[in-house]
Here is the input.
Amino acid sequence: MRFLRSLFERPSPASIRSRLLVIALLPALLAEFGMVVHFTTEALATAEHALHTRAADAARHLADALPDALASGDAARVHSLLQIEAANSQLSFARVADAHGNPIASTGVPLRTARPDEHHRQHAAIRLPAADLSGGAPAAARASPAGGLLGRVEVGVSLGQISAFRRDSLIHAALLMLAALALTGALAWRLSSRLAGQLRHVGHVVERLACGDLTVRTQLPPQGEVGMLAAGIDNMAEALQAHRGELEKRIHEATADLATRKEMAERANQAKSRFFAAASHDLRQPLHALSLFVAALKMRNQPPEAQTLIDNIAASTAAMELLFNALLDISRLDAGAIEAHPVHFPLQKMLLDLNHQFSAVAAEKQLHLRFRPCGATLYSDPLLIERILANLIANAIRYTDDGGILIGCRRRGRMVRISVVDTGRGIPPEQQESVFHEFVQLHNPARDRSKGLGLGLAIVSRLGRLLGHRVELRSRPGHGSTFSLDVPCGDARLIQPPAAAGVPGQIPADALVLLVDDESAILRGMAELFDNWNIDLVTAHSAAEAVQWLDSIGRVPDVIVSDYRLPDDTDGIEVIARLRQKFGRDIPAILVTGDTAPDTILRIGRAGFPLLHKPLRPAKLRALLTHLIQQARPAAVG
Here is the structure.
């Protein structure tokens, strides 16, 4: 029963075949067993009844045959009749006794050895016929005490015949049942094997369909339930194949359309980038010249009225320079020109510097700016981290009208989370992603420059990706915003002491600077600026003109300052290389450009020259000139 239960309850690879065999064999086994039991019982009952009948007939036959022999006292004849009847009726024994029970004759099994449970016994009385009682019988017979009773006959048949018949019947029945079971099992095995083979074939086809082979079909005739199943699978495969073909056609068309749109978008983006780079360069050129002239004017003594006008012009120039520098930062980040240099540094010192930088700005708006002390050590680029925090704090001050700004940190495992929390206007959830895009300002529809340019958070997002640090925003309109930055923890033992600041030197009096630029206005502005610095300057529109002027004065420049974009498809890198080759030395050089295209920034970075972007700050230019000349002429420091 456990085996049968397992066949029905636990499917296996051969479960269908096993179940079919059980379904076929179990009823046959039960039916055959019932038939064998029935017919064997009937046969045994018939044989036992025949045995009893035979014994009764033999006893009756002897009772009819023995009266004369007994009446005449012929013992030999009695014995002969017993033997004949025992042989004819297959008796195991036969005995005759007189009316008093005294044995007269017997044959077969001795009386003392006959066991009652091994034989079936049958008795019969031996009497004289009625006619003989009137006078034909001897006087002894007529005077019998039983009134004509001559004696009794007892016969017995062996029950061993029944046992042998029963054994033979069971053997034949078992052989017959085994033969029937074998035939039934063979038929069931063949049918189940055929069905299992068909189902395996269907399963293999379904498996190949699941693997994407929609060309496979079943090879079964469409008769019967399995055939109908196979036909349904073939129809499904054909439908799937047709549907996939249609999908592939649509995907191909959509891919082609997407590729066309992508190509158009890339061309438009490239055109926009080229236009943006050209416009940036063309706008930076006059702004650069304007900043030079303003710087030159501020160095001269002017009347108060003129000085006020110059200051206003300088403020407007500074605002434009702020916009261009923010755009430059975006371009440098997109071009990958900014590299991170992680070190171990203390956070508290950076927070103190930021407090000094923004405390006056916050006090001007009557905001409470608070920095919580933090003794954590971080591992990242401190300059870029400070730039991120500066942009976040400036953004918080700009968009907070009442309350204050809190800057704090909290350790979270191997990270330190720095948070800038404000009580400002907040950012709606649907706009919290767009605020990290360029030129997005939620509360400045009039594009008031005093409220920023919409580039601060875009720079924060790009710097976060560059450093691999997570920047998170949580905000509720009317309740303020929280910007968080996750920075890896550092090791305080690995903090490098700050390098000693060098004493700034002066440019030697006999130093000569070569300036190459194709814009006459820039050359005039630079000449005015260098004249105020009392530095000798040679200006030229091209490399050939520069060589001509230098040959005329017979001097080699200490520093070459060249614009990147020059006429006749040349650039500042080629000009510097030509001049170095002419004079046979690596003359220090500076590249100046108004181009913010990423590929331009990358090419200049690979060349290894210091880069200044227009409009440049005169103080930054002078500091760089001083550094380069000091490196080339260390003896001239003084």
Q: What stands out?
A: The domain at 241-307+506-638 is CATH 3.40.50.2300 (Rossmann fold). Confidence is low (pLDDT under 50) at residues 1-14, 139-143, 445-450.
